[in-house]
Amino acid sequence: MGVHFSHNDTRTCPVPLGPMNPSTKINVLHLRSSRGKGGGPEKTILFSAKEIDTTEFNLHIVYLKSPSDKEFDIAERAQQLQVENFVAIDDRSQLDFRALKQLLRLLKTHKIDILHCHGYKSNFYGLLLSRFHKMKFITTCHGWVSWRWKDRLVYHRMDRFFLRFFQRILIVTETMRNEVVSCGVPNDHVITICNAIDSDYFKRDKSDPRIKEDLSIPQDCLVIGAVGRLEKEKDLPTLFEAARIVLKQRQDLRFVIVGHGSQESHLKRLAADLGLRDHIVFPGHFQDIRRVFSIMDIYVLSSIKEGLPNTVIEAMAMEVPIVATTIDGVKEAVTDGQEALLAPQRAPGRLAEHILRLLQDDVLRGRLVTSARTRVAEEFSFAKRMRKIEKIYASMMGV
Question: Hey, what domains does the chain have and what are their CATH numbers?
Answer without folding.
Answer: 3-196+381-396 (3.40.50.2000), 209-379 (3.40.50.2000)
